[in-house]
Amino acid sequence: MDTSMAAERTAPAAAAGHYKIPESVLVIIHRPDAQVLLMRRAQPAPEGVPFWQCVTGSKDRPGEDWRRAALREVREETGIDGAAPGCVLTDWGLENIYTIYPQWLHRYAPGVWLNTERVFGLLVPPSTEVVLNPREHAAYAWHAWREAADRCYSPSNAEAILMLPRFMAGTSRAMIKT
């Protein structure tokens, strides 16, 4: 990604102070057995269907570290401390650039229509407790990774979940070390 273009897209939002920053994180929370956490948004998708997703969220400020944003969003949406013993947050080194859904463009500065999404995986122990933020999500469920991908509303969530097996080998070894 050309960082100068990202800075140009972000600058008007930061100056206004009330626009979302068009840089976000996607965090695939999973257990060692490849069960993936999905949450159902409190508001349905535009078509009225249930909106199941992984943890997603925008940076709070320009220049916020990707890892810090991922840990913050995980805690805000699920109550999970991604830095706790037994948890392993991995930056998958992937970025999705996509067109912001038209119904959400008003949240961004005028002229902003692209978002850059950084992908992370978070391995958690099987006993991890989930406490949802009720303003954002109404339910959660753990699903086998393929089923989780099928349930996601967002194509970027589904595609990332389908890559989970490729990234799990490294996080499983890392969990054994902690």
The tally of strands reads: 7
User: What does the average pLDDT come to?
Assistant: 87
Looking at the structure, what is the overall shape? globular
Low-confidence stretches at least 5 residues in length (pLDDT < 50)? 1-16, 173-178
Largest sheet: 4 strands, mixed
Helix percent band: 25-40%
**CATH topology label:** Nucleoside Triphosphate Pyrophosphohydrolase
CATH architecture: Alpha-Beta Complex
What's the order of the H and E elements?
Answer: HEEEEHEEEHHH
Broad CATH class: Alpha Beta
CATH superfamily heading:
Nucleoside Triphosphate Pyrophosphohydrolase
Tell me the structural class: alpha+beta
How far apart, in Å, are the first and last alpha carbons?
A: 33 Å
Order of strands, main sheet, comes to 4-1-6-5
The percent range for strand residues is 25-35%
